[in-house]
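Per-residue structure
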Amino acid sequence: MNKYLERITNGIFKENPTFIIMLGMCPTLATTTSSMNGLGMGLSTLAVLMFSNLVISALRKVIPERMRLPGEIVIVASLVTIVQLLIQAYVPSIYEALGIYIPLIVVNCIILGRAESYALFNGPLLSFCDGLGMGLGFTFALVIIGTVRELIGSGSIFGFRIIPEAYNISIFVLAPGAFLVLAMLTAIQNKLRLPSATNGDAVQSEFVCSGNCMGCFSDCKTENKEKEETV
């Protein structure tokens, strides 16, 4: 049971896709104008991550190698369509707020990244837990960024007013605010010498990004293949 719990906690803390690996920056910056929008995008991505990992892992020995990527994209696109229709039917306010960024989950590099580096080489349950952990980590990051932007820019958190309107700094709910908040949070990470893709001065970590994504995926594949052969 420990290995399943480890996959969940890794995605939240040790391998957080936003704060440590710096993946999925487009939805992170574009949809975090409020806490609720960040939560909506995070949970949508969480659902797709869990079930895409599960399905891709279950079919990993059935899908031919030459059809691997097209097959993964079809699976992810189908799941995103289901999530989009459910949000449109039951949470129309979130659907209107997130707009085009819901279908764009298909091309979120976190989704295909976990499929390529983990789900293809591990069992369905482990892959499901990996997707759950990464999705929770992504949701946590989006809610944190959205909360900071909403609090400073609108004076509220999840719609509840905290700061009087006269003290709001409206730029934080605009596009530049996303970069400012992410930069501030990253600067705090670097100051505390926490693992981060931007912190070259931190204690050397396997999670510090080298900028070579394909090389990273290749290393992950080689490592997982070696594990399979050992088992």
Summary: The two ends are 18 Å apart (CA to CA).
